[in-house]
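Table S2 (continued). Query chain:
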Amino acid sequence: MSQRTLSRLPPHVSAVVSLYSKAVARYSLYPSKPIQEYMQRTSGEHERFQNYKLRANAYNSHDFPPLVSKTIRPIFKAPLQVLPGEDVSTEELVASLFPNQLAATSPVFKESLHSHSHRTAKQNSDYTARIISALASYYSPFQAVPPVASLQNSVQWYRKLLQNTPIVLVLRKKHRLFSSSSLAQLDVGTVEMAQRVTRLGNTVAQDDEGVAATRSYHFTNLNTIDLFALALQEHVSNSTRLKDTIFASEPRFVDHDGNTVEKATVVEYLQHHPVHELIRTLGKYEQAEEMGQLLPFDMEYTSHHILTIEGPVVERNHQELLDMLDSSEFEVVAARISLQHPAIHQFFT
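Corresponding output:
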């Protein structure tokens, strides 16, 4: 998460987020730095990250534990020697396995969406970075796609998603910044929803004898809602109304009873209690639950997520998916239905 994104927040919001970041470090479930690094480097996400680095031949010693880094360094001193048949790209392999299913969607595989950056340093955790992105998207939304490679890649992904996906649902979920789960950097509801959607997609794939093995249902975070809104302008005729619906839930400060606290009150409090002074008082709170005594208010904000129904399963009965949404913490705030899909076009005509 770059400082540029953090600078898009109003000063009083940025101050509260900075205090939150320090509180997270204070009440982390893994206070020991070696334990934090071990948990990160043994996660599935980091394993996939390492695999990509190896395939892309983009070696960086800081991407691996010291012993692993020393062991694999000789591999990158010269081009990899592969046997006949091993030098097959991911696109060629997938196309050979699913020639019929991917014939109509082959443009999706023409351009990789992997990051071209090899730098891994970051100022905040991924969880905190998502919060900052969500707040920046509301307080200072991009009016045009900025000339930043990572952001341009995000918009490109959104464009392909809207172009190739018959049904896209936009979900939102409310959070409290200084709640116990937030301080622990845990969003159980979102993790469980992702797991349930994955399991449902796997069940559909088995029922359809593998037809939907790669494209059924998909759930993911929508961290840059402002960039998604820019991509919508190219694919939705009345995108302004849809954009207003998505941005309807603004972040707000609330007291411990859930009543709205005005901006002027927050600004005045921070003027009398600077963040650097509040940070020094963190040490006297032994439990995250005691953080309510630090501030007389909290921030309530909204995270956005995407749930897609892919082409191979669009004609199925989706009652199980709807029941899943109905029993979750998520609210469906928008739906984009593409009339370009034959089954959907036939239904509406």
